[in-house]
Specification:
Blueprint lengths: L8 E7 L3 H14 L4 E6 L6 H11 L3 E5 L6 H13 L5 E4 L11 H7 L5 E5 L6 E3 L3 H18 L11 E4 H6 L10 H13 L4 E5 L1 E3 L10 H15 L6
Parallel strand pairs: 1-2, 1-4, 2-3, 5-8, 6-9
Antiparallel strand pairs: 4-7, 5-7
Helix pairs in contact: 1-2, 5-8, 7-8
């Protein structure tokens, strides 16, 4: 397969056991951003997600696949994808999940907002945004986590833990990606924190976030604890930016 040569948008989709979702979400992405490319970063999924992604790439030149054999984790997968993008000519680099909680229909809104911003965050907690299918306990944890991060770091953004984003190339070029050790929600907070510390413009666009349609959540107690401790490490200068 030939290497991409365009200078447009790349959507990075990390996968681990997302076979039920990947063959639907990638066409949905390309339906709303037909000029974009999609990079699937698969962590050697035992359910065959990687093989299915390879088959999709064989029939559509806009789809690329990286099989990552190393320390698993969302943060590690995204850093792999970011480095892949920076080695090529993409100017707008998206990150999103494969499970349809991040709805592809919002991608054009992100790209529009990115014309005047350097980093665009999908926001569940602003007018026009929301969450569907969550219980009161899970919703309270999410809102509380965002309030906690905003308060500790003194940031005005309303959705720091979300993973639906669009970066201008210059933002990722300015971040020392190999120094980021966070892997879960704290990874998302840290990316935004570093962008703001570097003086980049950060915007939020409203998104409705439904619960995943298939597969299982990757959330764990370790990921939650990393977020609790990680924001204080940033606040106390224990994280290099």
């Amino acid at each position: 397969m030939s290497e991409p040569t365009g200078d447009g948008a790349l959507v990075i989709v990390p996968t681990y056991n997302e076979r039920e979702n990947i063959e639907r979400v990638v066409p949905a992405i390309l339906a709303v951003l037909p000029e974009a490319h999609v990079l699937i970063v698969d962590d050697l999924s035992p359910d065959g997600t990687g093989a299915l992604a390879d088959a999709m790439a064989q029939v559509d030149s806009r789809i690329f696949v990286e099989h990552r054999d190393g320390e698993r984790g969302l943060g590690r997968a995204y850093i792999h994808g970011f480095n892949w993008a920076l080695q090529r000519h993409y100017q707008f680099i998206f990150e999103m999940d494969a499970d349809f909680s991040h709805q592809p229909r919002y991608l054009p809104d992100f790209l529009t907002a990115a014309q005047d911003s350097d980093l665009v965050l999908g926001c569940r907690y602003m007018k026009g945004g929301g969450i569907e299918g969550w219980g009161a306990h899970r919703l309270a944890l999410s809102r509380g986590g965002n309030l906690y991060a905003r308060t500790v770091l003194g940031l005005p953004q309303r959705d720091l833990t979300g993973g639906f984003k669009c970066f201008r190339r210059s933002v990722l070029e300015s971040i020392a990606l190999d120094t980021i050790k966070s892997v879960g929600y704290c990874f998302q907070i840290e990316l935004t924190w570093r962008a703001l510390r570097a003086g980049f413009r950060v915007a939020e666009v409203p998104i409705v976030f439904p619960d995943r349609e298939a597969g299982t959540s990757k959330m764990s107690l370790a990921i939650a604890w990393e977020g609790v401790v990680g924001v204080w490490k940033m606040r106390l200068g224990m994280v290099n930016d």
